[in-house]
Structure formats: C-alpha cells, structure tokens
Amino acid sequence: MTDIIADSLTRIRNAAQRRLDTTTLLHSKTVEAIVSILVEKSYLESFNVNENGNKKTIDVTLRYNEKGYSVINEVKKISKPGRRIYKGKEDIRSFKNGYGTLVVSTSHGVLPNDEAFKRGIGGEVICSIW
Q1: pTM of this structure
Q2: Rg for the chain (alpha carbons), in Å?
Q3: How many whole angstroms separate alpha carbon 30 and alpha carbon 109?
Q4: Cβ contact 24:31 at 8 Å
C-alpha cells in the first residue's frame, strides 16, 4: 500500500455508507492526527489506538445524526502522491462557507484550516470533509 491516508479515508467513507458503528484503520502519526481533528470537529465520535506487539491500529467510532444518517457527507483526498496540492494562508480561510473542514499539513503539524489561518501559515492540503 502506497497511500495509507487515502486508505484510511476510504475505510471511514465505506463504514459510514454501510452505517457501521466502528472501523479499524492502520496506524501512522499523520493518520492519528487527522482522526483527532475529525473527532475535534465532531465528524467522528471517538478513536482509540491499539497496540498488538509491533503493529498498531486505530479503532474509530463513527457519528450519526438522530435520523441514523452519517454526519459525514463527503470525505475526499486532495493531495495525492502523484500531485501535491499546496495552499497559502489566504487560500485556506474557509471551506464550504464554514460547513466543511480542510486538513492541512503545516510546519506546525497537521491542523484544520481555521487553525492554520489563525496562525497565519499554509501548507499541503491533505483532505477535505463536510
């Protein structure tokens, strides 16, 4: 597997479409940072890092509204291994008029777009979610 982030986003998207309660992702520091942002922004309920010997996984609990639909409408990988997408601080101010979130990899770590704009830094746009 070459892109663990794309695999993790696809697992979350597929689990939400099938209305599963939880899904398991492969662990990396970047994936853990992305999942923590999604929990902070209330797209996911919670996550837990499990360690089995030398192998780590992340168990993610998905969030649904009162009608049983997923709160995630779309999750999309923006920057890909073949084509990296970078945006400056002016270009990441808001996404979907504030209803969505861009996850940006900056020199200060992986941040949501509103936090990166507040700090005045840009970076590589990893994914978008709304």
Answers
A1: 0.92
A2: 15
A3: 9
A4: no
State the Cα–Cα distance between residues 26 and 55, nearest whole angstrom: 9
Looking at residue 81, its amino acid is P
**Calpha distance 31→111 (Å, rounded):** 12
Compute the CA torsion angle 23, 27, 29, 32 (nearest 10 deg). Answer: 10
β-partners of residue 48 are: 59
For 89, phi then psi, to 5°, come to -65, -30
Map out the domains of the chain with their CATH numbers: 4-129 (3.30.1490.10)
The per-residue pLDDT for range 16-52, each reduced to its tens digit, is 999 999 999 999 999 999 999 999 999 999 999 999 8
